[in-house]
C-alpha cells in the first residue's frame, strides 16, 4: 500500500496534468529511479529508492561513486543510505527491493575491480556482499538475475557498471562461461544458469552465423508470477580491437524465455523480426505473453505488439503506434507508456507525454507532459532522460523521471481516477 502524504511534496502542475502529480525530489535533484519494469517503492509503501548522480554533464568514470537515497513518502525526508561505484546513467545501480524492505544494488570493489551485489537492510543499515550483479530480483526475493554487468558496455552504454577498459572481458564467439547468472540471496552464491552457447544450442539458433562474432547478455526479468523469465542477447561482428557501445553500428537481438531452472527455453523474438525495428520487451500481467514495441509489418512503424513466450501469436495489441517503455495494466484494458524525445509521439520541444491507451476503445490520452531535454544528451545519448514510467505495487500509482528545473527529478502520479 502506497503511503504517500500528498501534502509533504510540491505538486507538479506544468502543462496541466490529467492526474495528480508530485515531485518527490524537489531539492538537490540529479536523481533517477531504476526502470519501467520495477517498483521503486519499498514493500512497506513507505520509502522510494533513487540514485543521485554526482554530475549530469558526462558519463561516469571507473570508481566514481553515486548516492543511494531513500525518500520517506510520509515526511519527505531524504536519507543517503549508501554510496556505490556500480552504476551507469540509464538504470543507475539497478536498485531492486526484496521482501522486508531489503534493498539490492550493484557495487564494484575498486581494489580488485570486481562487480558484486549488495543487500542493504534499510531498517538496520546492515550490508551484505553477494556474488554477481543485480538486474532483477525474483518476486519471492530468493534469486537475483543478471547478465554480466561489466560486459554490457560492449553493446550499449548506460545499463551496467563501469570498470577500466582493460578490465572488461570480451566474448569472442559463443561463450561457454558467460550468459545469464542467478544469485541465491540467502547464500550469496552465484551460478551460471544458462551460457550463451547453451542458449544457441538449445534454441536451435544457427551457430555458424555468429561463431566468428561476439554475443552478450543484457536485459532479464521474471514474470509477475515468478514461474518464467526472459533473457535478451545481443550479437555483432567487428574488427575493432576494443568495441564499445555497438548499438550505434547495429546489433542482432534475441528475446529468449525459460523456466527459472533454465528449462523450456524458447526464442520469443529473433533478429529476423527485430531488424524491422523494435525495443523494450516486458511481461504481460498474465505471465504468459510479452509486450513490446515492434515493427511487425516491416514498414518501420512501431506497433504495440504482443507475442507468446514461445514465439507464437505475434500480433498488434492495438492500432495505435508504439513508443517508449510500454506496460500493460492488470485490468487488461490499458497500456501505459512514455516516448523518447525524438519519437513521433513526442511534442518536439523537449517535452514528452505519458500516454494512457485504452485498448478496447482504441484511444489514448496524455496523462502528464514532462520535459526530458537536457544538455548532457549532446555529450552521449546514454545521458538522455527517459521517464521510464513504473507501476507501484498497488497498480494505481506510477513513478517516473523528468528533467525539470535544470536537473533530473523523480515524480509520483496517482492514476486512481483513470482506473
Give me the secondary-structure topology:
Layout: E1 21-23, E2 31-32, E3 47-52, E4 66-72, E5 78-84, E6 96-97, E7 102-109, E8 114-121, E9 127-130, E10 136-137, E11 143-146, E12 179-184, E13 190-195, H1 196-203, E14 214-222, E15 229-236, E16 252-258, E17 266-269, H2 271-274, E18 278-283, E19 289-294, E20 303-308, E21 315-321, E22 327-328, E23 334-337, E24 351-358, E25 363-371, E26 390-391, E27 397-404, E28 407-414
Antiparallel strand pairs: 1-28, 2-3, 3-4, 4-5, 6-7, 7-8, 8-9, 10-11, 11-12, 12-13, 14-15, 15-16, 16-17, 18-19, 19-20, 20-21, 22-23, 23-24, 24-25, 26-27, 27-28
Can you describe this structure?
By secondary structure, this protein is mainly beta. The protein has two helices and 28 strands. The strands form seven sheets. It has a four-stranded antiparallel beta sheet with strand order 1-28-27-26, with no helix packed on it. A four-stranded antiparallel beta sheet has the order 2-3-4-5, with no helix packed on it. It has a four-stranded antiparallel beta sheet with strand order 6-7-8-9, with no helix packed on it. Strand 20 and strand 21 form a beta hairpin. It is globular, with a radius of gyration of 20 Å. The mean pLDDT is 97.
Summarize the structure.
With 419 residues, this protein is mostly beta strands. It has two helices and 28 strands.
List key phrases describing it:
single chain; 419 residues; mainly beta; four-stranded antiparallel beta sheet
